Structure formats: C-alpha cells, structure tokens
Amino acid sequence: MRGKTAEDLELLELLDPVAEAAGYEIVRLRLMGGTETRRLQIMAERAIDGDMVVEDCARLSRALSEVLDAADPISGEYTLEVSSPGVDRPLTRLKDFAAYEGHEVKLELDRLAEGRKRFRGRLACVEDQQVGLDLEGEEETAMVPFDWIVEAKLVLTDELMKRGAQVRAARLASDQQHTPE
What is the DSSP letter of 22? Predict the structure, then answer.
C-alpha cells in the first residue's frame, strides 16, 4: 500500500534508507503522470513522533533529491513533492491502523468480502496481521487480513479534527518550552 506499482516499490527500496537516515518514515510514495512530466509524491513523517512540518518537508526533499539525482531512477522529467500525510491520512502500515484505533476509516480490498470491496467503519483493533473493523449494523468486529487491503484512509470527522488540534497544541507547547528566551 505504500507504493502501488512495481516502479513505486523500487523507488521505496532506494529512498526508504535515505528517509530513515534523516529521521523520517515514508508513509506513501506515488509516481504519477504519463511519460512527459511526472510527479513523485512522497508523504512522510518524523520517525520519532509522527509529526511533519514544512521545515521537515524541505529537509527530506533535499536529502531525497541528492539520491534521486545521483541514481537517476526515473526516466524523463519529474517533480518531487514531499508532504505530510495530513489529518485524513492514508493508512499504509499496521502501526498506522493501531495508532488510529477508534477512528472512522474507509478501506478498499483487492478481493470481494461479504460481496463487496469497499468498507467504512470504526477501527477496532490490530491482531495477527489483521485489521478489526466495527461496521454499522454489525454486532461482531469484522477482521480483515492486512494483505487484502489496497487502500485505507481516515475519514475526516470532528473527532479526528479534535485529535489533530490536540497534537498541534502539544507540539506548539513543546516548541515553546525548547525555545530559548
């Protein structure tokens, strides 16, 4: 899920170590566009706290650009975009699902389950490489194998916005404590 195509996965192999060395984790990578001008979109976050501010995006972009320029793995012209996953972020790793337990999510599977591929519900748990989803009108938690999920995204709700505001407030308070006067 962090990459969709074989080319995306090759780029992840090249860029993951660079991001990790700089203190970041790549949440998702997508190389988009045709053969003319393409766009390499990378969503990342700090490994230590999951945060990502503008300065982090610039720092990671510089580190990735050095390797991309040297290795030249993308044919033709492209633009590199490094960003935060945002509040209504994609969930691409099991740890993402665990971190957002209790929040509403949309999932798309690579196969039919209960006669459909798309589900929306509340994240209940992560157990044994499976994601638990509480679906409206269902009494039991639906357990979905992580390997079946091709796309997952948090649903923008008041609850999620409140969590985002609390995280930003905590970051600002922390920044103020560490700023010399």
Answer: T
pLDDT at residue 179, as a whole number = 61
For 86: left if phi > 0, alpha if psi spans -120 to 50, otherwise beta; the answer is left
Distance CA 168, CA 165 (A): 5
What is the pTM assigned to this prediction? 0.87
Q: How many domains does the chain have?
A: 2
Give the pair of three-digit tokens for residue 5.
């195509």
Residue closest to 28 by CA, chosen among 84, 77, 73, 107: 84
Element (H, E) at 138: none
Structural domain including 124 reads 94-158
> What is the layout of strands, in order, in the sheet containing 149-154?
142-145, 130-135, 116-127, 104-113, 149-154
Domain with residue 128: its CATH number is 2.30.30.180
On whether the CB atoms of residues 128 and 104 are closer than 8 A, the answer is no
- pLDDT at 92 exceeding the cut of 70: yes
Alpha carbon distance 42, 98 (integer Å): 22
